[in-house]
């Protein structure tokens, strides 16, 4: 297991948003989090790189381990966020050039050599399958790209600091079907090297690309299994009701 969440409970003030969460995320696999709106998928995703630390009134009990190290006790938060990158629902490139977007992370980690940065930028853009679209316009603003290109750029930006885990929060929900397919293909390619955890509202997407799926409801994980099993022979009635479209 790359990540293990043990007996985790999370509260936003008095609101109990995650209840007794226990889940192991397998290395170099795609794990999908599905479930109706507001059931805690993003909250758990954001906990894995401690983004909830930024939320006032957020209290967490229990533990999360990355390669056996407790992320709340044993790891520096900056190092954790280098190892666990994140891509958000809406592409959010910085208002700067394509090159500078990708070089941003490596620069903040102290890399100054132009040759080294050039290599990292090219490799990251290639790995995010967007080198061909960008190689002749690296100095142009990232904001001039299409939404789908911007999302792949954001993935390149996340890859540039050589993370081990990539958290993706509904990465295709703002994209058209063609860009969505590109991101899905990319995720399947990236799992050779990275552990991917993806929140998705799209059950077809979870079925197409993920190895394991967790079904969330009202802050609990109702069922967690191999994706094909979860969708073909769900063991909980609530999972069955959700995947057959009876609610949510
Ligand atoms: N910063 C916050 N302060 C207070 N409550 C919050 C905060 N963030 C989330 N919540 C609440 O926690 C619950 C879980 O939210 P979360 O965003 O994790 O759900 P989700 O399953 O990802 O939903 P969606 O699919 O709509 O993104 C919701 O009821 C939400 O209103």
From TrEMBL:
Task: State the source organism's domain of life.
Answer: Bacteria
- Write down the Pfam families for this protein, in alphabetical order: ABC_tran
The ABC transporter domain sits at 3-243
InterPro entries registered for this protein in UniProt: AAA+_ATPase, ABC_transporter-like_ATP-bd, ABC_transporter-like_CS, P-loop_NTPase, PstB-like
Q: Keywords of this protein's UniProt record, alphabetized?
A: ATP-binding, Nucleotide-binding, Transport
Q: Name one GO molecular function term.
A: ATP binding
Entry protein name: Phosphate ABC transporter ATP-binding protein PstB
Give the species this sequence originates from: Aequitasia blattaphilus
Q: What is the lineage of its organism?
A: Bacteria, Bacillati, Bacillota, Clostridia, Lachnospirales
- From the UniProt record, report the name of the gene that encodes this protein: pstB
